[in-house]
Design a protein that fits this description.
Blueprint (H helix, E strand, L loop, with lengths): L15 H10 L3 H9 L30 E4 L2 E4 H10 L8 E4 L12 E4 L1 H16 L10 H9 L7 H8 L3 H9 L4 H4 L7 H5 L1
Antiparallel strand pairs: 1-2, 3-4
Helix pairs in contact: 6-7
The protein binds zinc ion.
């Protein structure tokens, strides 16, 4: 787990959040007890979901997916509180607490780390890629392979010949050429998709 030296991120301005979280860092044992009683604590490698209330309007706001806990008339995100209670100091100003497991309700401190907005965005791009790219394929192709196969469309070789050469199935080659798979990597549009019809 990443360790942050609190002195390194001394707050330039003291905000309300900072104050609330400072006080939380010195919270009495009963608050910590109450907090952890609402977390389904499991093994180190497992996610520990927040079992009490989730914030706001789940369908409309992103925050609705996070656990929320009340503290002195304020509502704080449960995963931030988990991190603060474990570390004993506030989240550095300008940092968010990111989930390595991508489970907003998870409060396992081993799945939490401070990061900037930019790191959060980079994580999301990575996950987005894994959903639409390599992990989703039933073959061991990479984005680069798919682009290479796409570039062979006008080589004069048949799909079957290219498939034989690369040791993959002809249907994989044809589906890449038609844009019905790997289109995010190749930029080829499936002519049957609504996007293609309306463009
Ligand atoms: Zn987790």
């Amino acid at each position: 787990m990443t360790c942050v030296d609190p002195g390194r991120y001394a707050a330039p301005t003291i905000t309300k959040d900072y104050l609330a979280e400072c006080r939380l860092a010195e919270s009495p044992k009963d608050f910590a007890g109450r907090f952890w009683s609402k977390v389904k604590v499991g093994q180190d490698g497992e996610c520990w979901p927040w079992t009490a209330c989730l914030g706001g309007n789940r369908t409309k706001t992103r925050d609705g997916r996070y656990g929320h806990v009340g503290f002195e008339h304020r509502v704080l995100k449960a995963h931030r509180v988990a991190w603060i209670l474990t570390k004993g100091f506030p989240v550095p100003i300008g940092y968010q607490i990111l989930h390595s497991c991508d489970q907003p309700r998870c409060c396992n401190p081993m799945h939490l780390r401070p990061g900037t907005l930019a790191q959060n965005a980079a994580d999301k791009v990575k996950r987005h890629r894994s959903v639409f790219g390599m992990k989703n394929a039933n073959r061991k192709l990479t984005d680069q392979d798919a682009r290479h196969i796409a570039s062979l469309r006008h080589s004069g070789d048949s799909g079957q010949a290219i498939a034989n050469k690369l040791g993959i199935s002809a249907s994989t080659v044809l589906s890449i050429w038609s844009g019905s798979s790997w289109s995010r990597a190749t930029g080829l549009m499936n002519s049957t998709s609504p996007l293609a019809r309306h463009s």
